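Sample 1 of the test manifest.
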Amino acid sequence: MSAPGKLPRWAELGLLPVINLVVALLISGVVIKLLGESPVAAFKLMAAGSVGTQEGIGYTLYYATNFIFTGLAVAVASHAGLFNIGAEGQAYIGGLGTGLVCLWLGAWPFWAVLPLAVLAGAGFGAAWAFIPAYLQAKRGSHIVITTIMFNFIAASLMTYLLVNVLIKPGQQSPESREFAVNAWMPSATDVLARVGVTFAATPLNLAFGFALGAAVLVWLFVWRTRWGYALRVAGENPAAAVYAGIAPPRVIIGAMLLSGALAGGLGLNELMGSQHRILMDFPSGAGFVGIAVALMGRNHPAGIIVAAVLFGALYQGGSQLSFDMPKINRDMVVVIQGLVILLCGAMENVFKAPLAALFAKFGAKPGVG
Amino acid sequence: MFPSHAFLRFAALAFCAAAFFASRVFAAAPAFAPAIVYDFGGKFDRSFNQSASEGAEKFKKETGIAFREFEISNPAQREQALTQLARRGATIIVAVGFTQASAVEKVAKQFPAVKFTIIDATVDLPNVQSVNFREQESSFLCGMAAALVSKSGKIGFVGGMDIPLIRKFALGYVEGAKFVNPKIEVLQNMTGTTPAAWGDPTKGAELAKSQFGRGADVIFHAAGATGIGVMQAAKDAGKLSIGCDSNQNYLHSGGVLTSAVKAVNVAVHKTFLGAKNGSWKSGVIALGLAEDGVGYALDEHNRKLITPEIEARLNQTRADIVSGKIKVSEYKAQ
Amino acid sequence: MSDEAGSATAPGRNSDGAAGAARAPALELRAIDKRFGAVHANRAISFAVAAGSIHGLIGENGAGKSTLMNIIYGFHRADAGEILVHGRKVDITSPQGAIAAGIGMVHQHFMLVENFTVLENVVLGVEGGALLAGGLTAARRELEKLARDYGLEVPLDSMISELSVGLQQRVEILKALYRRAEILILDEPTAVLTPQEADQLFKMLGRLREQGKAIILVTHKLREIMAITDRVTVMRQGAVVAEVMTKKTSPRGLAEKMVGRAVLLQVDKCPATPGVALLSVTDLEVRDRLGVPRVKGVSFELRAGEIVGVAGVAGNGQSELLEALAGIREPSRGEIRLGGRELVREQLDARARRALGLAHVPEDRLRMGVVASFSAEANAMLGYHDRPRYGRGLFLDGAASLAGCEAKMKEFDVRPAQPALRISAFSGGNQQKLVLAREIDADPSVLLIGQPTRGVDIGAIEFIHRRLIALRDAGKALLVVSVELDEILGLADRILVMNGGEIIGELARAEATEEKIGLMMAGVRGEGGA
């Protein structure tokens, strides 16, 4: 017997998010109006700024790269029934791994640096996730608490390293020296120039491809491998996992290692691809946006890519908005982003029941004789 | 604080002409277009960034020339904001804060015709002016003042985020205090290791209370908005505090010993003016006591606290530092 | 079927002979219709329940009984149709509305607050004023009167958590009566009771009937329908297929109407020929998380070619025993030998046990046996997903799992035969068939089965029982844990009765009777002993 409030799949996955997004933008529009700006102009500005120019697209996808990595990290943990709030810290420490490889081995050719940087990023991120995972699996410490704590520990550790160890001597800013050029991730501009396409200079770089690749791998892993199957069973129904002989502690640790490794990919984009050095607070909240992205993308890699690009566009469009409409400062942009997260993530079911009722009224009747 | 209505209309017009046409609008009218990019703290941090903003506002008021401004919210925006401002025809761009150094270096290379001024860092390029302050000198004087009024022989320091810049403040402060009283004990705490340490008045108040509890009777803060809590705690405990960056004496009249002033507003104002009338020069500018770039604040709010004897001693030392008789060490990372 | 069904075709007419034509029925449904999307859950349902009568409602899972009861109780709204209470049309939009109309419901899963007293639970929601104390005194007086009138004695000041399941059920009934219910709906009330407790319940219901209450008994147990109801309505696929006087029908007749074809209630089998012991358990003790022993020194043997039934009231250690055998729970003491070799710590997980030829159909399908949100296909390899047949290396082979699921569906007649459909969209019986197919497919030598037919339709019960007996005849050893005595009696060759974590008695099938087992279930040691 179908429960009330069921929607066709296309409406559930396509229509509902669009409605939520539109409502979020409508509310944002009201706020913008109250500030004395034209909502229409503001949204046009956001749209033009995020996807209307090559530069906008570049920045949008550059931000999206971070969100894909962290969104996937959150999603993998979520499939195993774990709420990983620590993607921020895992990305931070993962980036350290990537950064150290780039700093120390920058003289090596790029093709030699790249795999090591990827491995180091994933390895450091995984290692950072391992401790909370172990504590959850073997000691029952709640992963939500421990991963939050580990975000703080990661921040403190990185500050210590940047201020005392990695800082470029004689400078104020707690940053490492710049990586050697060999260790730079090729920018989209350069890559496209090789195939004869001119593209505006933006921080968008090859890491975007890695993020897409990671999404494909995550999809393969979760839905096409035995481990992924075990992971989903443990996440959906831990009792059934025990029944099936799947040891939940192993799944917890495995899922968190993978989650941390994915979060660690952020360093490829942010450090290797854009900043070319290790600096303070480079994840700048991407780990938390990843939670919203995973939520909105329904923990599915395809959905995560779409949601990550949407959030990338919000970031870039919002940045343009505060650039061109000084009344809408960066805090307002955060409000708009918050509304989108609220409606598309946390309150996504608000419009589900009314929509389902509409479908039941107009959709189902002609079907049944 | 907001730009004028006319500017808004102009901005809207520019926007309507589609994003990339905007650059041509600017290019076609090569007027003087100043711009400023603040760092994470934001322009209302009551401290460093706000001081910069005040300088820019003063320039606008005097000349009637509007300026563009941008507050960044993630690292990537530093470069993005500078690039966009440069592309849209800004003639001079002030980047506030050392964290923008590498972004300035990158963008300044791409736009050799645009003038850049970076505050609190050094970027060695022909179109970049680097404005640095010798905070250790003002901190030295504040340390002296603290040691001179302290009855307990213990004074305190509360820093914001643990970075070299703040250690620079701390080192000057300690040296100044020891200069007066070699046996003085200086209690030191940093608020934190993340940028949140700049905006946590509650934690600032807790650290101050703990230092008071351990016997300190004057506390110097170099902690941005966190320092507001330090100063409040001092007032509540009936002890003294020393403000930072801006003149904060007025916050608790009679309860603030003095403030280590850093004339970021003057620097920004001068930069805009200089760029307008052609006197702007690239290169490194170091502003210390000699240049009135830093100093200690003396006004009606702390007149009673800084006795003529103390004032005479501080002024003497100030002159000695300016003349080079006294050397204040500068904190250097490694 | 046609003569009996004839009376059902006259809806709306008061057909209860005893109550007389003049009085309006306590509850009357007229052409209740309800759809959920494409599913037509209730099709023009009409029947009437007279005051002072017990009306049975039977039907297979998914026949629409729950929907109908939820409509009466105000959880759902009917798309069309009317509900009349004592001849007056009522519009019930919420459970509060149902209570106001004099309708009370006793759910299968009790709606009680565990750490409240009986009294507090009964007045919950109808405290009668801001000051609780006054309301409580009045409530106590009234409850004591109710308890006397209906023989529903319950210790009013005990915590719910201290009460037996049977007493908790009384509290539920009291709750309804306290709210002045004239019409009482009981949903599968005997599922959690011992036969003796069930008898007591029926006595209570009899007294309520004498007092003029109208009672609707929703059940799938034909025996109960026959024992206590006056009339019975049979539903199938959302529609009423028959409404008959109970005394004019038979269990077989009802079963046929429910399923729509002839069914066998008792599967014939030849006597067992037990072979070697495949599973032997010695002095097994299992403790729960709090360290309380749940299974206390149990020893028994399970031989090839026999079905051993474990009877007992739910919660007497059967579940823990089953889980310890399956490798899900670690025993605190004792020895388990499978096929002559001792299972040690290394084999303390279900996967290792499966590899040794032990399969397990868990008691609680939805909690453990399947992953509700997964497709049938994904569920059909649960526990076997790392076997070579389902893929190569790390990767799963979609075609293999699909083929595997299709084969199982075909062999076990799982309907609908759609591997991609969510398992939760299948009926309980079809879910169980798939789980059983999965476990049997691995060709185990020992099969542990908990509650083989819980929530399973009559039609499927017969099928499942046949398969289990066929397995026995093929020389497998089967351990069946069930709270349904009929099932134990129908399947087992040997019966172990558990009480308080111990095997309190063992009976050969030939000497076992319902009374003997019932007494042992209640804790009275069998004269034969183990």
